[in-house]
Amino acid sequence: LSSGINAEYGEFQTFQHYFKQINLSVMSLKLDLCNFSGYKIYPSRGIRLARTDGKIYNFVSKKCRNSYLMKKNPRKISWTVLYRRKMKKGTEADVAKKRTRKAVKFQRSIQGATLEHILAKRNQKPEVRKAQREQLIRSQKEKSKAKKEAKVAKKKTDTKAVRAGQKKINKGNTKSKPARSNVMM
After folding, report:
1. Is the distance from CB of 80 to CB of 36 less than 8 angstroms?
2. pLDDT score recorded for residue 33
3. Residues 53 and 47: beta-carbon distance below 8 Å
4. Is the model more confident about 90 or about 80?
């Protein structure tokens, strides 16, 4: 800054210090938004388009105006604000990422098994567990084998009784049938 400005404002170094001291607000600018791109248009910048129906459109540049006149969709053009909003670009700076909660694991009993029983199973040695499993499989195989044998024995006795019954029926039917004669009518 030149020495003339320092002298004019006394002890203040810049205009901003001067305005702060005497509580004058800095003039606020009226900003328009581009109807195509969504960018801010500062005073003395941009292009205005007045349509015959009386609507006024503001554009930041010729590129935006021509794209609008060609009826391009701003949501499909990557440099526009609408596209960036649609594709969620640049929002992670504004919004803090949500923290994911970690699932807390804890032991509890399951229906039919108490917690102590589950812990005892877990602490068993693998050899013991394997022996128990094999014994259980063996006993299940024996049960199924016995069941099969009982079924086969039942079937044999049933078939014998059925055959005997059928023979009796057949013998009875032969006696009740009238004898055929060789006479033709």
Report:
1. yes
2. 95
3. no
4. 80
Per-residue pLDDT tens for 10-42? Answer: 555 665 555 555 554 556 788 999 999 999 999
Using CB atoms within 10 A of its CB, is residue 65 exposed (0-12), middle (13-18) or buried (19+)? Answer: buried
pLDDT score of 92: 66
Are the C-beta atoms of residues 8 and 26 closer than 8 Å to each other? Answer: no
Q: HSE, CB side, 13 Å, CA atoms: give it for residue 53.
A: 2
Residue type, 151: K
- 122 compared with 4, residue with greater pLDDT: 122
Q: Is the pLDDT of residue 8 over 60?
A: no
97-131 exposure pattern, b = at least 16 Cβ within 10 A, e = fewer: eeeeeeeeeeeeeeeeeeeeeeeeeeeeeeeeeee
Buried b (16+ CB within 10 A) or exposed e, 23-62: eeeeeeeeebebbbbbbebeeeebeeeeeeeeeebbbbbe
Dihedral over Cα of 135, 138, 139, 140: its sign: positive
Q: Are 41 and 64 in contact (CB under 8 A)?
A: no
Provide the 3-class DSSP secondary structure of residue 125: coil
Q: Which amino acid is at 77?
A: I
